[in-house]
Amino acid sequence: MKKIFLFAFALLFVMSFVVAENGQNGTGAYNENGSQNAVIIATQNQGDSSQLQVRTTLRSGTYFNQEGREMQISVNDRTRLKVGNYEANSSLNITQSQEQERTRLHTQLSNGANAEIKIMPDVASETAINQLRLRQCNESNNCTIELKEVGSGEQVRAAYEIQAKKEARLFGLFRTQMNVQAQVDAETGEVIREGKPWWAFLAAE
């Protein structure tokens, strides 16, 4: 009986100490630890979900990208991606993932790397127009836009290749046309290559 009494007294003493500690901290130890673990788990889960997105085969339809801009996608033998008045054709294997009402586009490159197609054809076209000093990019100057893989090895990336014909005067006298092109990174929007004929330095554009 005496042992039971001493055990009960010791248990009450320990419990009173724990209650006092909780009172100083302003919250229960169980709740505090539980909420902290929940935050860590939520953060980890959020990180995992951003890295391990569920990707599905690209389907024809109208979608909205991460910026809320409308994308019209047509999938046949090749993929056609249209935003505004600009469209790009592609033979890349493009997949899509959903985040609420927004759609992300992805492709796996030949070196195994994954690339997200963040830049849309209209932005890539405007970048190329400014870089090549074109007036426009349409049928009038045979302007085409293709989303493709460029580079090699570790430098492989998905890019828009814009090709067009540009009027120029050779030696400042003879009217001619020259083929020009620019490649715009589909993930960053950076111009990674510009191409003109070797004799372009002899022509006034």
Defining traits:
single chain; 205 residues; alpha+beta; nine-stranded mixed beta sheet; four-stranded antiparallel beta sheet; 3 helices; 29% helix; elongated
Shape: elongated
The succession of helices and strands, N to C, reads: HHEEEEEEEEHEEEEE
Domains counted in the coordinates: how many? 1
Counted by DSSP, the helix tally is 3
Q: Kindly report the average pLDDT value.
A: 79
Radius of gyration: 30 Å
Approximately how much beta-strand content do the residues carry? 35-45%
The number of E-state strands comes to: 13
- Low-confidence stretches at least 5 residues in length (pLDDT < 50)? 13-51
Fraction in helix:
25-40%
Q: Report the biggest beta sheet as strand number plus sense, adding barrel if it closes.
A: 9 strands, mixed
Structural class: alpha+beta
